Amino acid sequence: MSWRWCRFAELGVDDLYDALALRCRVFIVEQVPYLDPDGVDRAAWHLLGRDATGALVAYLRVVDPGAKYDEPSIGRVVTAPEVRGTGLGHVLVREGLARCAAVWPGRANRIGAQARLQGFYRGHGWEPLGQEYDEDGIPHIEMLRPWQAA
User: Fold this and answer.
1) Phi, psi for 6 (deg, rounded to 5)
2) Farthest-apart Cα atoms in the chain, separation
3) Residue 70, class by beta-carbon neighbours within 10 Å (0-12 exposed, 13-18 middle, 19+ buried)?
4) Long-range contact list for 9-17, CB < 8 A, 24+ apart?
5) Residue 2 CB coordination number (10 Å)
6) Right CATH number for 2-145 from 3.40.630.30, 3.40.50.1580, 3.40.190.10, 3.90.580.10?
7) Is residue 142 helix, strand or coil?
8) Closest by CA position to 84, among listed 95, 76, 92
9) Separation CA 92–CA 89 (nearest Å)
10) The dihedral of CA 106, 9, 20, 34: what is its sign?
11) Would you call 121 exposed, middle or buried from its count of C-beta atoms within 10 A (0-12, 13-18, 19+)?
């Protein structure tokens, strides 16, 4: 697995295309139609994971503090369907948390998680806050991960 961590302006057209294609394949085709390019990508770091063949199989973004929440926020966490069940999602989140700790040491991380994935995110230190809410027809819940070393 090779990882690339970069700002939006550094993505390049191929990385941007691959990231949007993977996000669309999973979030829109598999789940529910919604506007994925939400204007927040420009205020985010992007973590792209490519397999040995160069295919993008893992991706997340980390939105800058103040752009969505007061804290940095991991989001758009996605793995390609063909690598699910391999543990790559956990590796991806750990990579993202390590990058957050390097860029924003000592900062908590707040997410808006799909409610069905609370167990996954709790396993990485997030705790639910408040009540579930609807986002694009999918139940979500806000979760906070107090600062801790990744």
Assistant:
1) -155, 165
2) 42
3) exposed
4) 9/42, 11/46, 15/46, 15/48, 15/56
5) 9
6) 3.40.630.30
7) strand
8) 92
9) 5
10) positive
11) buried
Listed by start position, the domains of the chain span 2-145
Q: For 34-86, what is each residue's pLDDT tens digit?
A: 667 778 888 999 999 999 999 999 999 999 999 999 999 999 999 999 999 99
Other beta carbons less than 10 A from residue 71's beta carbon: 21
- Give the residue carrying structure tokens 């598999």: 30
- The token pair at 94 is 């750990």
Helix (H) or strand (E) holding 26, with range, is none
Supply the mean pLDDT for the chain. 91
